[in-house]
Design goal:
The structure is a homodimer.
Chain A (H helix, E strand, L loop, with lengths): L5 H11 L4 E5 L3 H12 L3 E6 L11 H13 L3 E4 L3 E7 L2 E7 L2 E4 L2 E4 L8 H5 L32 E2 L6 E2 L4 H15 L13 E5 L2 E7 L2 H6 L4 E9 L10 E9 L5 E8 L7 H9 L4 H5 L15 H15 L1
Parallel strand pairs in A: 1-2, 1-7, 2-3
Antiparallel strand pairs in A: 4-5, 5-6, 8-9, 10-11, 11-14, 12-13, 13-14
Chain lengths: ~325, ~325
Amino acid sequence: MLSEIPDAQAIEATLQSGAKRAVVIGGGYIGLELAEALHSRGLKVVLLESAPQPAGRMLDALYRAEVGAELERGGIEVRTGVKVEGLHVRAGRVTGVQTDAGTVRADLVIVAVGVRPRVELAQLAGVRLGRTGAITTDARMQTNVPAIWAAGDNAESLHRVSRRRVHLPLGLGANRMGRVGGVNMAGGDAKFPGVVGSAVFRVLGLSVARTGLTHEESLALGLDAVSADITSTDHAGYFHDARPIQVRLTAERGTGRLLGAQLLGQGDAVKRVDVVAALLHGRGKLQALAEMDLAYAPPFSGVWDVLLVAAGRLSREIASA
Amino acid sequence: MLSEIPDAQAIEATLQSGAKRAVVIGGGYIGLELAEALHSRGLKVVLLESAPQPAGRMLDALYRAEVGAELERGGIEVRTGVKVEGLHVRAGRVTGVQTDAGTVRADLVIVAVGVRPRVELAQLAGVRLGRTGAITTDARMQTNVPAIWAAGDNAESLHRVSRRRVHLPLGLGANRMGRVGGVNMAGGDAKFPGVVGSAVFRVLGLSVARTGLTHEESLALGLDAVSADITSTDHAGYFHDARPIQVRLTAERGTGRLLGAQLLGQGDAVKRVDVVAALLHGRGKLQALAEMDLAYAPPFSGVWDVLLVAAGRLSREIASA
């Protein structure tokens, strides 16, 4: 797999040439994963983040702080509130990162500051973009230009909780949009049900999951959000393998409507965020399970979680009966 | 805790006195747990089960076979289709179990053949029993006798999938019924929402979970059930810690209504059965999460799963605001 990914080849070549210090710019999913991967290869790693904490767009401040603490505990240096101004290069090789708080030495620099959709070609064809900068489609992934479809990281999704169109370039949604678009382009009729904002990731020994809206996201949308924070154990407390787990659950005051959940713990335990995701979807049929926006990251499941595979298979069996 | 449970004290005393061979009669939750516990204490353990396989009332045949195979792999002898006829006792101590297939030597015998509600007192008071032999109540846990309430292992529950009244003496339901009954007895107004048949257990290295109805249970209820069996991995297949996981998902042909799921794997991964449980409950509000029949066993969660604790806390916060 490595041999087919040019960026991975370049990183590997740089490591082989004796790189000792790495700087990762950006504390999102990709930045966190790369910081950990380089750290595990024995490099001294510094993570630079312009926001006050890493994982800024995924979690509330309370949980962001835990992610930062885990990085520091593991020996990854985190510098937040730092603005990158440029790179120092000597003889064609990077030697450091210039920031508004001084220079950070580096033999290897990773820029992981987010994903922006590539929409130049679409714009030339007259395809309409949404407020997010990604391509707007209907639920069948069709753009405003009848013969043109968009799917994956360049397309918007309907967020079923906020009812807004969002740009969430994650693996499961991209897979699903691609299938829906493909079916429709081939003359079939499929709909993308949208997402509920599920995601899960691991940083060193810490597993973190979220679904729906965070408390901060809810407030930003003008919702009257109220959250409960619970610290407990993932197994019964008297069990030898019980480990701490934290949950923040968010709902709308007045209506009692669930808005989202954030979990923080170790291992598979945080995958129970999917139960909240199921409720956010709010349906009770097989079709709803097949369509569900489950939390995906490689340490926790395949892109198509085994339950989704089962639901898909069963839907087809029923349809073909 | 041991010191407060007479049966546990008696077992411990028997082990201390040098017991080497144990026979466990019954292959349900309790029998499986005790067989494993005694095996881990170094005893030679034989599990006797009258049905063709252990775990008979919890799982479909396909999964029961896996439970039996795991026991055998772990060194616990399983004898199925065996009828127990009596005990051999010498000088006040058991020496063996008489079965219709011969005698099994034993220094210690555990009888774990199921739970039957203790209803003698209730019957004397004129309390009505259900078809299951347990006490019938309304959703407020009130019996047919106005001043008498019943809750826990002696009371029936409404199964939300089959719409039948069932007797499922499991920890979470008992806890919840007790709270509901207590609230109502004290003049409040609470309702027990019923169960969806969730359960999870571990046998040696195997974790097993179920919710809703099994395929066999569905057929017995006259439902036109159809199931899909999927074998996959709990994490992405290329991950070093990916482990096998199996799912059987069952639905009603024609309507597409979800009926249940069974999962078989290792560790917390099978807890994702709760996602199906969420769908079986079929609601989208905070209250629905608080009321959800999540799979409970000590290796996987507390009686009140951390999500339930969070939902309960949040419900109270909203109610008190």
